[in-house]
Amino acid sequence: xxxxxLIEINDPRNPILPLLTREQLWQGLMFRAxxxxxxxxxxxxxxxxxxxxxxLQRRLDFGQAAIEDTxxxxxxxxxxxxxxxxxxxxxxxxTITIEEPETDHLFLRFAYDTTLGEAAGDEDAAYAxxxxxxxxxxxxxxxRVIRTLLAGATAH
Length: 156
Prior knowledge:
Elements: E1 2-8, H1 22-34, E2 45-52, E3 55-62, E4 65-74, E5 78-83, E6 92-102, E7 105-114, H2 122-155
Antiparallel strand pairs: 1-7, 2-3, 3-4, 4-5, 5-6, 6-7
């Protein structure tokens, strides 16, 4: 299943919402990479297994279930979360790209590519729509958490 959508970060027409810089937005994405517990409900622990240049290998513990993923990035441009397909997980990638069509008008593009629904039947199609909706809600929550974490970081 392939699915992507945009979330507007800065709306120059909305003075109530604080504008984020590309660097602040990137800092928020790095928060998500370093400790996903703030971003994924039900996640008990996010353990960094290995670290390299623009790369993290992590183990995500959801109770008894553990998922291993690899996070790669180009700073202030994009971040990709890749999970291998296992019996417990459909596998796939999530790539989050920072887009700035005009100065200070930032968006995040969330692009999913999973093995979910490869044998598409009517039930699978309905389930895929449910998953897309859940991804979208999760991504909105990601932006909310980033704003909250950044507000706390600047308050100190």
